[in-house]
């Protein structure tokens, strides 16, 4: 079973997953496997999130292969059909791939209707593992178009078509999103041509999937709204000025405001005043995090060749454009966010979480509640 990490009201820590160098931390007795299964079957949440009404964080296995059918059914049955719930479908920073955690993707369910934010590798599998009906998705939004946020979109759209989808999906994101969707429709042409002749299908993906480019800028911009939610965006700092000046592509944070809850997803970013503005008084601040040791390692790598220090490189990109725990804490504190969820976790140990250093950095600025995101966690 994966670990569930929660600070603020109480701590639940799986010692088998700890990578904090043996730092002693006070916590409640570890839940047993029997108790976790009992709780899942009995719809008992493992932690209640303070100021948020009827909000809970529920434990779920990291992969659908390890997920018993009874537990999967229980999780789906326990999910309310009203209000706003967040399901973390993927929490791993990319572009690497592993078998334990999916790349970044988040589902926000509003009165039972799912909205998808980003769709990295593994998102489609975890959408099914979370018992979320993908045919109910009406809108998808992207924070930016790096492949660890988009790789599963072709799979999602093509499988939705073969699954009998007849209702459109509107897909929003920064510059390049409309082209990406058109390219996916082109990718489907052979499959569509075969199945149209061989299976008598009549619906065309070109009539189902519509991409929309959003120019977020430095002011809060409306992305879309419907009877359930208003979604706004603002440009963040994942693309520094020396890159922005040479390309039209942008990166943005997203805010969902519903009748019951407000949620901000940072996207990939370093400290961003724009993002602080977007996240003012938000109920849930889902923010990427990079362990300080990762930034330090890439800075050392840059210094090994001073002549290349100012040239584009992976080392420069990673060190300049992701948020350390302290930066997450600063943004959360300045925005007066009620709850922080650490997402898109970039750590030196790959899929493991250096708990103490991450928490210590956030705590230097932010005193509120903190959740360490895990795949299939419901908040």
Shape: globular
Question: What is the average per-residue confidence, as pLDDT, rounded to a whole number?
Answer: 80
pLDDT below 50 for ≥5 consecutive residues: which ranges?
1-72
Distance between the termini: 18 Å
Q: Report the total helices.
A: 13
Structural class: alpha/beta
In percent, how helical is the residue content? 25-40%
Strand order of the largest sheet: 1-16-15-14-13-12-11-10
Structure, described:
This protein is an alpha/beta fold and 379 residues long. 30% of the residues lie in helices and 22% in strands. It is built from 13 helices and 17 strands. The chain has helices at residues 33-41, 69-78, 123-129, 147-150, 153-162, 177-187, 189-199, 241-244, 273-278, 292-303, 314-321, 325-335, 355-363, and strands at 5-7, 47-48, 56-57, 84-90, 105-110, 113-117, 139-141, 169-174, 209-214, 221-225, 230-235, 252-257, 262-265, 284-290, 339-346, 369-372, 377-378. An eight-stranded mixed β-sheet has the order 1-16-15-14-13-12-11-10. β2 and β3 form a beta hairpin. α5 (153-162) crosses α6 (177-187), α10 (292-303) packs antiparallel against α11 and α12 runs parallel beside α13. The longest helix is centred in the last third of the chain and has 12 residues, at 292-303.
Secondary-structure map:
Elements: E1 5-7, H1 33-41, E2 47-48, E3 56-57, H2 69-78, E4 84-90, E5 105-110, E6 113-117, H3 123-129, E7 139-141, H4 147-150, H5 153-162, E8 169-174, H6 177-187, H7 189-199, E9 209-214, E10 221-225, E11 230-235, H8 241-244, E12 252-257, E13 262-265, H9 273-278, E14 284-290, H10 292-303, H11 314-321, H12 325-335, E15 339-346, H13 355-363, E16 369-372, E17 377-378
Parallel strand pairs: 6-7, 7-8, 8-9, 13-14, 14-15, 15-16
Antiparallel strand pairs: 1-16, 2-3, 4-5, 4-17, 5-6, 10-11, 11-12, 12-13
Helix pairs in contact: 5-6, 10-11, 12-13
């Amino acid at each position: 079973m994966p670990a569930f990490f929660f600070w603020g009201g109480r701590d639940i820590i799986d010692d088998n997953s700890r990578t904090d160098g043996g730092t002693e931390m006070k916590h409640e007795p570890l839940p047993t496997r029997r108790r976790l299964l009992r709780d899942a079957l009995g719809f008992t949440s493992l932690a209640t999130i303070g100021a948020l009404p009827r909000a809970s964080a529920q434990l779920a296995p990291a992969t659908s292969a390890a997920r018993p059918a009874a537990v999967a059914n229980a999780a789906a049955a326990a999910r309310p059909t009203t209000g706003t719930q967040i399901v973390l479908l993927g929490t791993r920073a990319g572009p690497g791939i592993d078998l334990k955690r999916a790349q970044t993707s988040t589902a926000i369910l509003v009165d039972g209707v799912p909205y998808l934010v980003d769709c990295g590798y593994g998102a489609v599998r975890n959408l099914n593992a979370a018992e979320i009906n993908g045919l109910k998705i009406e809108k998808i939004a992207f924070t930016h178009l790096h492949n660890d946020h988009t790789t599963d979109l072709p799979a999602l759209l093509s499988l939705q078509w073969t699954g009998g989808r007849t209702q459109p999906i509107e897909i929003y994101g920064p510059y390049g999103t409309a082209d990406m969707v058109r390219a996916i429709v082109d990718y489907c042409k052979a499959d569509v041509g075969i199945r149209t002749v061989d299976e008598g299908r009549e619906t065309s993906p070109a009539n189902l999937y519509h991409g929309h480019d959003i120019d977020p800028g430095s002011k809060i911009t409306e992305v879309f709204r419907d009877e359930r939610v208003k979604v706004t965006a603002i440009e963040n700092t994942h693309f520094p000025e020396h890159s922005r000046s040479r390309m039209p592509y942008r990166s943005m944070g997203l805010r969902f405001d519903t009748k019951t809850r407000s949620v901000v997803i940072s996207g990939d970013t370093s400290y961003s005043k724009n993002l602080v503005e977007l996240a003012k008084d938000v109920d849930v601040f889902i923010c990427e995090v990079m362990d300080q040791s990762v930034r330090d390692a890439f800075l050392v790598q840059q210094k090994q060749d001073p002549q290349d220090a100012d040239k584009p490189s992976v080392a420069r990109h990673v060190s300049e454009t992701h948020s350390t725990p302290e930066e997450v804490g600063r943004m959360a504190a300045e925005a007066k966010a009620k709850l922080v969820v650490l997402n898109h976790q970039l750590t030196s140990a790959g899929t493991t979480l250096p708990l103490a250093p991450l928490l210590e950095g956030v705590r230097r600025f932010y005193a509120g509640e903190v959740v360490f995101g895990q795949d299939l966690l419901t908040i």
